[in-house]
Amino acid sequence: MTLTVRVPEELSARIPAEQRGPGLDRDAVRLLVSRGTEVSHHAFGELPRLLRAGDLLVVNTSETLAAAVDGRIGHARVVVHFSTRGDDGRWAVELRDPDERGTTRARAGGPAGTEVRFPGGVRLVLEEPLSAGSERLWWARVAGPQGAGRTDPQGAGGAGPQGEGDMDHPRGAGGTGPRDTGSPGPRGARGAGPQGAMGTGPQGAGGTGPQDTGSPGPRGARGAGPQGAMGTGAQGAGGAGPHDTGGTGLHDTGSAAPAGAMGTDPDRAGGTRPQDTGSPGPRGTGGTRPQGAMGTAPQLAGSTGPQPAGGTGPQDTESAGPQGSVVLRLMREYGRPIRYSYTERDQPLSVYQTVFALPSADGAGSAEMPSAARPFTVRMVTELVSRGVQFAPIMLHTGVASAEAHEPPYPERFAVPEASARLINAAKATDGRIVAVGTTAVRAVESAAGADGVVRAREGWTDLVVTPERGVRVVDGLLTGLHEPEASHLLMLEAVAGRAAIDRSYDEALRGLYLWHEFGDVHLILPTESPHSEHCASNCR
């Protein structure tokens, strides 16, 4: 779907809402609401009155990574966007050229064998394109220097080990120095979550303590945010909270589903195989699997197939777990959030975390923020729960989505835990509306749904692309940002609402001067309702 509209440059949101004036929070954005071709205009703070008791919001708990890292190819400076980590230890990466504004512009990847050098002697070697039809993203092997793959603690102007040469940290390429406040520091020094949402502020309700950089702290310091608000409140509203439906709450979204709970539905879009738990296939199979919809890392563009997690590449530097990952350490010390030219300046990593973000056990996360959830605050979550709206956490780690190339999404890792599957099915059985918060949530939950519309716990990789032809089996509504006219995400919006509804809502967004992109305004798509239906008994006061 391509809209026949042009988004003026001045409608790009250049800074976060909370930085536009004193006393503002991240929920200070506008909300466009469409029910079929009927459109209305609201503030995001009105969301609780637009939903009703029994509705369920599907939220993505993936944490955003500092996935942009400066490097060199020969003497030329480049910026590497680390997109997705495969099960064989390789990374899908996008190479970008730095520009004079501190951002980047598109650059062709390749050829195979190209080596990128990073501070501390860490090297990235391009191996093959992720897709035969595009050379934007490449599978690449990362190796650290001999020893432990440690990075240069100074990171600026120092020669790397083993005579790596003048690999200074290129600040002039839009980069920031090591341990910049936008990147998480050592785990012992990491502060409370964004806006105090996941952290240890006063009473865990929106407060932020000293040194609150928005970076996730240890698990033991994160219990006072929406986790407490989302579990018990939902119970009091007539439905079981995420912690009371099988023991899988927000902290469990990355864990494996129970044995036998995955891959048992042969009719799921994209195809699965019985008991496909996402673990690598037997050695010698090349990692292939039917239709590539779930399970091991996708085999693309003539790939030799994934190795078991941890890999067998040079020096086996990509061992399982965050402590053994050279790339995760590189991002922690030298990375910054990915940003594009329409933004005004670099922002700390906390700005790119949502209130629902949780660290995964292996340190993985999203290359770019699941931005539809960005306007939510602890206060908003608490009010929604108090009104009987439930939350079902899922996880989908997003890859990079270049601002210049509006391609269909590549395979991404996801997990729908048993607790969330049960919450979604129960809400649908009682006529609650399933509203996905972001296109990532749609992709995950629809990947876990069978042809019968029943959601089952699943974990692995999804290559599902939701289109009007495929339609949606679970989702009734969608809260999302405003997308570029050429964006492939618009096909998903059309699948949820229909072409006429999307055309009308985008015309209204342009007429109303709504703001686009990750710091912009949001769009709530709800199903049309019968004029005789009895709704909003408690939420429309």
Please give a handful of descriptors for the protein shown.
541 residues; nine-stranded mixed sheet; 14% helix; globular
Strand content: 15-25%
Q: Give the count of helical stretches.
A: 8
Tell me the distance between the termini. Answer: 38 Å
In quaternary terms, these chains amount to: single chain
Coarse morphology: globular
Helix content: 10-25%
Order of secondary-structure elements: EEHEEEEEEEEHHHEEHEHEEHHE
The radius of gyration is 22 Å
- Report mean pLDDT, rounded to a whole number: 73
Low-pLDDT sequence parts: 146-166, 168-324, 532-541
Quick overview:
The protein is an alpha+beta fold. The chain has helices at residues 47-50, 226-236, 326-334, 378-386, 418-429, 439-447, 489-497, 499-511, and strands spanning 30-35, 38-43, 56-60, 68-73, 76-85, 91-98, 104-106, 115-117, 123-131, 134-143, 390-396, 412-416, 434-437, 458-462, 477-481, 522-526. A nine-stranded mixed β-sheet has the order 2-1-16-15-13-3-11-12-14, with helices on both faces. Strands 4, 5, 6, 7, 8, 9 and 10 form a seven-stranded antiparallel β-sheet that branches.
Question: How would you describe this structure to a colleague?
Answer:
The protein is an alpha+beta fold and 541 residues long. It has helices at 47-50, 226-236, 326-334, 378-386, 418-429, 439-447, 489-497, 499-511; strands spanning 30-35, 38-43, 56-60, 68-73, 76-85, 91-98, 104-106, 115-117, 123-131, 134-143, 390-396, 412-416, 434-437, 458-462, 477-481, 522-526. It is globular. Strand 5 and strand 6 (91-98) form a beta hairpin.
SSE blueprint and pairings:
Blueprint: E1 30-35, E2 38-43, H1 47-50, E3 56-60, E4 68-73, E5 76-85, E6 91-98, E7 104-106, E8 115-117, E9 123-131, E10 134-143, H2 226-236, H3 326-334, H4 378-386, E11 390-396, E12 412-416, H5 418-429, E13 434-437, H6 439-447, E14 458-462, E15 477-481, H7 489-497, H8 499-511, E16 522-526
Parallel strand pairs: 1-16, 3-11, 3-13, 13-15
Antiparallel strand pairs: 1-2, 4-5, 5-6, 6-7, 6-10, 8-9, 9-10, 11-12, 12-14, 15-16
